[in-house]
Specification:
With 250 residues, the protein is of the alpha/beta class. 50% of the residues lie in helices and 17% in strands.
Length: 250
């Protein structure tokens, strides 16, 4: 399902295996557990100067929710209930990334579709291979509406309304070079290995800044109020800010 490795101050979360990395309840739970472990280990290290890279093995970064699992539950109504269950389970995972007290970088080494694309843009930065793979929201083609928090995340991360229209109302499949030109991703690289290497370089540069992770998460949440509200992250209070200010360099 996934693995978590620590290299120095960099956590590497990898979706494992050669499949499509469909986001079943078990996969979502495994990823959330890995994130929780990274958060705990970073806190034990002093809570400063860490970063996380998320990547995947094989041809896919993630092809979205596990629709085959939903269909295997039985009747159409049971399948719809199973899909709603995955949608509800994925929302806290989005919240985990938005509130994680360290910079995050997605190394998109293959196709990232639907919830898989959402997984990528949960991160602060997205590096993508240029020789294979697209980003794509398949809901319109499949006749399924977007969960409200999907729209909130896309509006938070894709600020050009014409680009947002292409993704949501045209179901356009976008390769890496075009995605970079449209400001959806941050870098294009020649292969999967090159993409992971670029993500690691960025992670090392960010971790070297030795930022306070709690302050980093607070600022991130302040920059993304719509998605924070959509996934139920509480607003920070003056008390929270004052507590963090007590450890500042002023």
């Amino acid at each position: 399902m996934c693995s978590l490795e620590k290299r120095g101050r960099i956590f590497i979360l990898t979706l494992t295996g050669d499949g499509e990395h469909r986001l079943s309840p078990d996969v979502i739970a495994a990823v959330r557990s890995a994130i929780s472990r990274a958060k705990s280990e970073a806190a034990a290290d002093g809570g400063r100067g860490h970063a996380m890279v998320t990547t995947a093995e094989g041809r896919f970064f993630s092809n979205g929710f596990d629709l085959a699992w939903a269909l295997s539950t039985g009747s159409p109504s049971a399948a719809r209930s199973a899909l709603k269950h995955m949608v509800s389970l994925f929302s806290p995972l989005v919240a985990d990334f938005i509130s994680l007290p360290m910079p995050t970088i997605a190394a998109v080494t293959g196709h990232a579709a639907a919830a898989g694309f959402m997984l990528a843009i949960c991160h602060d930065y997205v590096e993508m291979r240029g020789d294979r793979g697209v980003i794509y929201m398949s809901e319109l083609d499949k006749g399924m509406p977007f969960p409200p928090y999907f729209m909130a995340l896309m509006r938070s991360k894709i600020t050009d309304p014409k680009v947002l229209r292409e993704i949501t109302l045209q179901g356009k499949k976008i390769a890496a070079v075009e995605a970079a030109e449209k400001g959806i991703i941050d870098g294009v690289h020649g292969s999967a290995a090159d993409t992971v290497e670029a993500a690691m370089r960025r992670a090392e540069e960010l971790a070297a800044r030795n930022w306070n992770g709690k302050v980093y998460a607070l600022i991130r949440k302040g920059a993304l109020p719509e998605i924070c509200h959509a996934v139920g992250l509480p607003e920070e209070t003056d008390e929270d800010r004052n507590r963090l200010m007590s450890g500042s360099k002023l």
